[in-house]
Amino acid sequence: MLVTIADVLALPVLAAGRPRIRAGSRQLDSPVRWVHTIDIPDVAGLLQGGELLLSTGQHLKDPRLDLERHVRALHDAGAAGLVVELGPALPHLPQGLVDAARGLRLPLVELAQPVRFVAVTEAVHARLLHEQYAELHFSEGVHRTFAALSARTAPADDVLHAASAALDRFVVLEDRGHRVVAAAGARGSVDALADWADRSRRAPFGTGTGPSGPERWMTAPVGPAGARWGRLVVPQGASDDTRTRLVLERASETLTLSRLAGHQGPGTLVEEASAVLLRDLLGADAHQEEALALRARSLGLPAGALVLPLVVRGAQPAQVVSAAAACAVACLAGGIAPDTTAVVLTARTAEDADRDARALAEAIARGSSTAVLAAAAPVPTFAAAGEGLIEAVHVADAAAAQPGRREPGRVHRAGDLGVVSLLRQLRGDPRLDAYVEGQLGPLLRHPGRAGADLALLRALVASRGSKTRLARATGTSRQHLYSAIARLGERLGRDLDDPDVLCSLHVALLAHELSAGAAPAEATPPG
């Protein structure tokens, strides 16, 4: 934090002199490197620049002194300003001095009361040394922080949070497509992200760290030289350009090294940012809607009246993004669990949302015949989409557990799954576990033959209790089949010809398979 002329004038020791600005009032934010006391006319050759000069004005009374030349010499030597103490010997400043200082915009201050210049120099120099130590301490802290982040190839979110904490400013990482892939710092975040892409395009990418665009954003390119894939942005006014440059440059280096060390391409940044947003939706409430919508827009998702939550099991986010591009469906996709990709898309109407979901499901199926896409009902806000994603996860899991009912390219919904969806949500409930044990316990207590018994029961319920249909489907003789079903009924202690009994066993069988976490096996001939 640089010490300015205004800071020096505000010091109690100098403020006691009742300072009055006679020239250069708009230059009071100029930095002061040092303070000198002078009372000789030829001092310019002794200056190095940035000095604030204190004078009793004795030399200014010399009629041979060319005041304009004297002021110009001080200006050209880089003096920060001139402070002159008035007194009986010099009751007012020479007008020529004031005029010359105004012409060159050199800060000129008169003191109406005497002050101890030695006390002023001591106070200012102590302040300067303190600030220099503070800057050194800040710089060392920044280097330590980002060195540690580089050592562990920290993710972009961690790097952005460190930069934001160091600057106490909102910090954004965007890609070359002007999409916000990471951001940190709550202060001003909503305003900063508004119309991000349009505003960002008015601040051209530069080759180095510095201000850019009409809003004077402080930016720093990210990525190896010649292959920049993004930039860091502080979209709010920086309180200290030196610190902001330092932090952004170190954060940029850390991000670049992390991506290189992790062997990750820049395209994954959008996937990571989308995944963070989608995970945030799971616990969002209505108060966060504006921020969530802005984040979605800043990632390139178009505006729409409705938000459709989707979940894909069996496909990675990159596969979903690729499929969406192939069918021209704009969406955000990100992993929320192993082998589970959450997706949101926007649409004007429910019909448009349904059409896009079908197109996406078909495009995904062309790349993976085993992937399952599930959809919840469209909702009017992003904050409300979290519950839909949770529902879609249950539907996708339930659909994945029924390979016989899966259809590539189909959009699965809760209403399509019937009792399986309910059982999926009740999985782990002790009452359901007790029901399964009561229905299937006689088979499960004999692991040696439980597999064959369960396979026969599964085939029987799949044939809806029709032994003729079952015999035809399995290619088993009726005599052998009837004997096997009779033995199964005896072990269960149930009448397998009773439709209610068969229904109860079917529900228990589905619950058991869902609880075990395994997909039901295909029907096999009873042995």
Radius of gyration: 38 Å
Give the overall average pLDDT: 84
Compute the number of helices.
21
The overall strand count is 15
* Sheet with the most strands, sense and barrel status: 5 strands, mixed
| Widest beta sheet: strand line-up | 1-5-4-3-2
End-to-end C-alpha gap = 85 Å
Q: Low-confidence runs (pLDDT<50, min 5 residues)?
A: 518-527
Architecture overview:
Helix 12 crosses helix 13 (350-367). The protein is of the alpha/beta class and 527 residues long. It has a 5-stranded mixed sheet with strand order 1-5-4-3-2. The chain contains 21 helices and 15 strands. Strand 4, helix 4 (95-104) and strand 5 form a beta-alpha-beta unit.
Give a brief outline of the structure.
The protein is α/β, with parallel strands linked by helices and 527 residues long.
Topology:
Blueprint: H1 5-10, H2 12-15, E1 19-23, E2 34-37, E3 51-55, H3 67-76, E4 81-85, H4 95-104, E5 108-111, H5 117-151, H6 156-167, E6 171-175, E7 180-184, H7 189-193, H8 196-201, E8 210-212, E9 217-222, E10 230-234, H9 241-261, H10 267-281, H11 289-298, E11 306-313, H12 317-326, E12 331-337, E13 340-347, H13 350-367, E14 372-375, H14 385-400, E15 411-412, H15 414-417, H16 419-425, H17 430-444, H18 447-462, H19 467-474, H20 478-492, H21 499-516
Parallel strand pairs: 2-3, 3-4, 4-5, 14-15
Antiparallel strand pairs: 1-5, 6-7, 6-10, 8-9, 9-10, 11-13, 11-14, 12-13
